[in-house]
Design goal:
118 residues; alpha+beta; 46% helix
Length: 118
């Protein structure tokens, strides 16, 4: 029997690894009980926050991937920016939190525009 997400403890996770481009990636996974999802409209402050994150993502794409912007980017472009960050975050004019939220927002935007919303 599966637990609900908030009931999962560290002991419920299975530790795994995989090789990607010659690097071993370690991760853990657990399966939780399916629950009915509820969708609600975002508050205006949340919409504004996401918009600001997307503006930063657009700026980063244009600066580090000339010819790319939020109009024509892919998930691979976002992976490239993450690789650049991991090599030297001091090259970026933003905090780690700003970087992470902008890339996360851009990825969510990409999934939504690629797969559509429900």
């Amino acid at each position: 029997m599966y637990k609900k997400y908030h009931e999962i403890s560290d002991d419920d996770f299975e530790r795994r690894s995989t090789n990607i481009d010659g690097k071993t990636i370690y991760f853990k996974e657990a399966v939780s009980q399916m629950i009915k999802q509820e969708f609600a409209a975002l508050a205006e402050k949340d919409c504004k926050f996401i918009f600001e994150c997307l503006i930063l993502a657009d700026t980063l794409l244009k600066k580090y991937m000339p010819g790319h912007s939020l109009k024509n980017y892919t998930a691979e472009n976002l992976d490239f920016l993450i690789d650049l960050w991991n090599k030297n975050p001091k090259n970026f004019n933003c905090t780690e939190t700003e970087f992470a939220t902008s890339i996360g927002s851009a990825f969510g935007h990409y999934v939504n525009k690629t797969l559509g919303s429900t």
